[in-house]
Amino acid sequence: MAATKQLMDYDVDEAVDVFALLKSADVRTAKNGKQYIALVFEDQSGEISGKYWDASAEDVKNYVAGRVIHLQGKRENYQTHPQIKIFHLRLTGPGEPADPDQFIERAPMSRTEMEEYINQTIFEITQPTWNRLVRKLLAEFQDQFFTFPAAKSNHHAFQGGLAFHTISILKLAHSVVAQYSDLNAPLLYAGAILHDLGKTIELSGPKSTTYTLAGNLIGHIVLIDGELVRACDPLKLDPQAEDVLLLRHMILSHHGLLEYGSPVRPALREADVLHQLDELDASIMMLDTVVGHTEPGEFSERVFAMDGRRFYRPTTDTPQPKTD
Amino acid sequence: MAATKQLMDYDVDEAVDVFALLKSADVRTAKNGKQYIALVFEDQSGEISGKYWDASAEDVKNYVAGRVIHLQGKRENYQTHPQIKIFHLRLTGPGEPADPDQFIERAPMSRTEMEEYINQTIFEITQPTWNRLVRKLLAEFQDQFFTFPAAKSNHHAFQGGLAFHTISILKLAHSVVAQYSDLNAPLLYAGAILHDLGKTIELSGPKSTTYTLAGNLIGHIVLIDGELVRACDPLKLDPQAEDVLLLRHMILSHHGLLEYGSPVRPALREADVLHQLDELDASIMMLDTVVGHTEPGEFSERVFAMDGRRFYRPTTDTPQPKTD
Amino acid sequence: MAATKQLMDYDVDEAVDVFALLKSADVRTAKNGKQYIALVFEDQSGEISGKYWDASAEDVKNYVAGRVIHLQGKRENYQTHPQIKIFHLRLTGPGEPADPDQFIERAPMSRTEMEEYINQTIFEITQPTWNRLVRKLLAEFQDQFFTFPAAKSNHHAFQGGLAFHTISILKLAHSVVAQYSDLNAPLLYAGAILHDLGKTIELSGPKSTTYTLAGNLIGHIVLIDGELVRACDPLKLDPQAEDVLLLRHMILSHHGLLEYGSPVRPALREADVLHQLDELDASIMMLDTVVGHTEPGEFSERVFAMDGRRFYRPTTDTPQPKTD
Amino acid sequence: MAATKQLMDYDVDEAVDVFALLKSADVRTAKNGKQYIALVFEDQSGEISGKYWDASAEDVKNYVAGRVIHLQGKRENYQTHPQIKIFHLRLTGPGEPADPDQFIERAPMSRTEMEEYINQTIFEITQPTWNRLVRKLLAEFQDQFFTFPAAKSNHHAFQGGLAFHTISILKLAHSVVAQYSDLNAPLLYAGAILHDLGKTIELSGPKSTTYTLAGNLIGHIVLIDGELVRACDPLKLDPQAEDVLLLRHMILSHHGLLEYGSPVRPALREADVLHQLDELDASIMMLDTVVGHTEPGEFSERVFAMDGRRFYRPTTDTPQPKTD
Amino acid sequence: MAATKQLMDYDVDEAVDVFALLKSADVRTAKNGKQYIALVFEDQSGEISGKYWDASAEDVKNYVAGRVIHLQGKRENYQTHPQIKIFHLRLTGPGEPADPDQFIERAPMSRTEMEEYINQTIFEITQPTWNRLVRKLLAEFQDQFFTFPAAKSNHHAFQGGLAFHTISILKLAHSVVAQYSDLNAPLLYAGAILHDLGKTIELSGPKSTTYTLAGNLIGHIVLIDGELVRACDPLKLDPQAEDVLLLRHMILSHHGLLEYGSPVRPALREADVLHQLDELDASIMMLDTVVGHTEPGEFSERVFAMDGRRFYRPTTDTPQPKTD
Amino acid sequence: MAATKQLMDYDVDEAVDVFALLKSADVRTAKNGKQYIALVFEDQSGEISGKYWDASAEDVKNYVAGRVIHLQGKRENYQTHPQIKIFHLRLTGPGEPADPDQFIERAPMSRTEMEEYINQTIFEITQPTWNRLVRKLLAEFQDQFFTFPAAKSNHHAFQGGLAFHTISILKLAHSVVAQYSDLNAPLLYAGAILHDLGKTIELSGPKSTTYTLAGNLIGHIVLIDGELVRACDPLKLDPQAEDVLLLRHMILSHHGLLEYGSPVRPALREADVLHQLDELDASIMMLDTVVGHTEPGEFSERVFAMDGRRFYRPTTDTPQPKTD
Is Zinc-finger one of the keywords UniProt gives this record (chains A, B, C, D, E, F) (predicted)? Predict the structure, then answer.
């Protein structure tokens, strides 16, 4: 009876029969005065919402975030947003899946692979100040770096997403360095590794991610700058020495525009490149998800983080070229 | 022969005869191929520019920034900008003024008075974390704080301007606290004292002020945040504790808008008030200078730092009320 | 049984039992086709909304704006907005409160105190033209000036709010004049008194305030300018004389930016100061309310009139300094 | 010897030999320290600038604004701006033209024709309040209305330009009313006649036009609103009656956007139409001049008042259709 | 029983009894979990929405877009939007209206009249290249041009609206050419006829109009430019010849601003005029509908396509002047 | 005597002695009334300007764009812009360089290498419609594509720059396709090859490049779309078929924003990626030049095409990592 199909594999109007995790569960009052639960279901294929009408007190107690459930229903669209119309819902019992971790979306690389890639790159940071600062700060936030998401929502909002996004940028950076040889590779790599490390302080953790008070009042860009300055004392570095300033500038300017929260605009070639690669990776990841959830021949729902644009998924069948 | 009148006391078309300081001296080539020196004269009444035509090699050697000179000429306007048409120029000799410091604009309070005011206010910062951080950082940048200008140009661009601007804000803050009793006075005072302290790192010093590399790549807002975080370790404070975050937020948000270089917008009542008082003091100081240099019945030249607006100086004679 | 606690004194999930005024009552159709009444309750502590489900024809007739009611229910939050879940509602009977005026929010100064403050300030307007224009216009709109709110919603939206807001600005203006002696005090005071007087034409009155046709088609800024020009004839003043123009400019430019409805930007020092003090008082008043209604350790709901920002209420306990 | 050709009839590099008026004459210092006079020549074909080098004290005394001169030189372009290279310049003598009025650009309709057109239109303003207000205000500013320019520079900046621009809009308004019968013709006509009448207070007069203090501090839109309100008393009209408000709104909103100085945006169909017809006439008049001064096959210089756009003058020869 | 009154003739709270067409019918789930149908009714007076609660499976099958129905209910307002509260709904039977075309809004000119006007204008396009291109493209899209709406919604969103809007602009263009004789009439007329012809490719057709894929990915402005270039080959014209470029520019620039989808801004007098006439006609048509649906003395709902402004319908009674 | 050092190899204040090409030569009048020639010198290292004072008629005839000259002078800075102070200038004579082509900056790949790379990539465009359209359009504009610059100024403004910029993007595109496998590689490559091909119509040619009339009135984006549509007829393709629309959309949207001249915003993943890679390559190329011309430890002059930012050239010595 249990489905091997996953949540996002169902077409519109298809009958749904799956095990899934309750990612969130908000109790609300309907306009007729009765309670319902606004649920978000999750498995490794993604997440989708559904409403559980006329919820009893017991339902409210059972269906809370973090529980694994069995769901039967129908895949629908509500104003272009996909959702599940729930026919039957129950907690899983003996012999059925019960471990929430099985249903959590995670980075497509293992932690070991990611650690290896980062360590490999650190060898290429041949400037001693940058190398030491990167090692020091990574050591301090090691565990968070490899488990936190890169954002609360939008792009790379999954476990390990922060490290995975960092590595994607590093890969792009290697291609760019190979093509434009005047760029300062160690500076670009060091900046890429540290640019979002402040998210380990800005966000609450890998699950049910929210913003911390530090995140709301300071923001990840300045938070990691503060930690970098603080790391200078034990390393006997001057935070106002040119090489330290260059690395701080890489981090501080990586949002590109003041309006996007960078206190300075990029004033180094490498800072400008880092900003562009950050945007490139984030937008491709976001569009892969958005277009992947759109039917061929249709436009996606509006993508808030990309100015509300809608993206088209073509029907044209294209043989991919060999790219050995 | 020496004038007791100062540079800014002359009317248009009046003959000028003063001792003054050369604030800057740039050698340029005229369109006819000859050299001239673009000079800026300064005394305690303000500064004004003038061009020294057909400069010889010796002139170029003599008339450099920092020298005290005797100037004869005529006060003119060039496209609404005041300037001096130079008739005669020479270095001062024996028995004449020679000390540049005599001619430098400075804050209308003495350093001692300013130090007393600041010390007095620190007593009112009754929250221990904020009190200790303010003391620690002021101790570190003490000398610069009481001698640096508040800016390279525009408002409070004179020796001691940084402390004087800070004290003006503190005075306004005391009035506001007296009127709106819900405000957190210690937080507002601590934020006011530290808000521009980063300028001691951003700017090169009290004379011939330029931006440092740290100023250009990081900016004074984030520079002082870094120093504050760094100060936490010896004080055994957690930079992410709520009280520390509140003070950091006061500093970081004081430009009000992301476009103006604050990485976060004010999210505390006191942070919003600090931002507004900062603007109020800066704009009044700027307009006092601008309107003071305008003839009654005329509009000033455009004030770049206030959206290029021109301000009118009325001819209406108004008896000031008694405000005892 | 009647509560001495007021509407805004209850915490989330606490049982509510109060007398209150119905500020507004809109009959709507629920998505199930039945009628409900969207109510706003008010007392001197503030206002809060609630929905009365399955309203009968008699309920619709009884529960209308202006009636005093007895309310039992529970304090809740709906998407960060506070509201009351209604358990029981009835009109008050004999021996219970019945006078709506008891429940209306009003300025924290009495009318007499406010009149005295204004009269006192008029003595300080030592320039005769401004003095006469202020007296003439205040005489004409006297009653409205001391009873109207300063706005339909947002800041000072209570009875007497217009005069109270004006007086707050005057108090700030006195502090500023004391600190910056070059400012023209009579001009600043006269401008402050008249700046929002047009609201007595723009708004419909102290209760159930709406915009008049004149308010919608002309706006309070130009409305009072028109009345000022009209007052010149009986006072034998030329509306284009410099002193009259200065006062008109104070009023016309006080919104600061053309986008905010001022037909000219401030071109007088005093006009710029008036604009800034207006914003300062309005924002502090608004934030006092917003932060006052937020739990310690939480962010407020978005404040529409301040660019949708959310404000944090700290948990840090701060002893206020003595500021005698 | 005297030319019948006018200033704007010469091609680039052609020798110029004309009588003209000195519209303005500014004495400046060249970068070599010598004086020159920046002149603007004018006749009925338009205006063009030229520089008179190495000016003697006598030259400075002779060549002032308002003098008629004889000019020989060459038509040139300086960075796409047309100018005259001056070979010979002298004041005119006996038997030569001496009356400045002969050389002033003026409206292509005579004052009598314009007065007739306006009077005719007033008959069509069949609503009594609007009719009386229009008559009253026109009577007051009659002479200025028919002689002032519509602007200091840009469109209709010639003697009688204000009335001519008003009449052009009225002609367009008649066409629009004929095509869209739902429009309120009397309101549209009354609004059109009054919309720019405030320029008679904003500008200094028909010659050497500058902004008055009232123009700078209040602006023509609010100035005429004030006069309209003031006119209500003798006419026994209520300035807040609906019909008066409608006419005031027509004037106040005619710049269309707050950013362009209207304190309210158009909220009447007729107000929106008036705004659009105002822009249509102003832009066609401006482009007729700009394109008329451009060579076929070339782009004009940038038109500041139209967002800095450059306009192309085609070489294509097009037979105009008969449009009887 | 059948009403001669039409949908938009009813006042608020009046009982409605009409035949009408179902323009659209969306089945949705209410917050109580039951189905309802969101209907839009249409007849030649306009369109209005209503909700059909508790819809059965048979209702869902019957009440679909394109069916003629008999409707009884009440005219209401929901948050300033007009709607019908449905009491009784049924499909029409024998002897009752059944032809959807009877209920569709259409242009106020017949197709024959419109064809005649266009043909007449083509005679006035005396430049051969433009004449041939206009004839060729009109021939290709003849049928669509005279039956398509000018937009999916907003202005001229009715059958024949595209041709009618084009003709309105041509009429305005004739008035403007008569008043400003320097304009190139054939260029203006040719540009006006072609400016929106791309909508025949951008939109799906006269009924249930949606955007095509070509409309979404390319847009009507560039679509018709492509067809014009393509038409050059059979006509043996060079798409880069000056006369062809002028006509292409008229089309490409007619939205006026890059932000509105024009790839170039108007750089010809005639292009600027076409842009302004397009806006003038579209806005008057839109406001005629909006104000026509507003009660005297009230403001309309917000008009999205005009920056969300609300428009006032006066109560002032104005005798229209004779305009023979 | 002839220098092997090139123009851009000289430091400030160093004596210059080189052969170079006159890229442009504008005769102007100095403020003292004498003629001078504003020259731009060019060789393969870049370009630099200089002023030739007191030019005789013969100088004006000799020193025109396109002539090879011998130049002696001094390298200076004028307000942060590098320039040459000219000591001696003469045309080259027998036995000295005379061929302008020797001094023209050109792409760092030979035409043959570039042709091979493009041909290779066409094999990877495995979708037949795109393959045929790319071949057809490249065939038509073959010669221009490999010789034109990519712009009049700014990035890739050298001979062959258009093809070189296209190939740089293609190289980046290959890296991106290798990293993000969901992207449609043939669509991305076809779009990249055609995206700027319209510049062959927009620009006048490889030397003394100016905008054509077609470039000014239509722009390169729409020009190549027109040619693509026109190419459909001989290839028997429907310009509105989905696969053709996808390719047209790639071209039309590649400027990313409407404000930058794209008539539609990217609505395909590949279109968004193309836009970003275009910006990435253009900005790196521009910054390589700008930073290359800046002294270590200094900020560059403002880069107009990058929002006027200034870029810092560090002094930090960084060993590049091995990236085999």
Answer: no
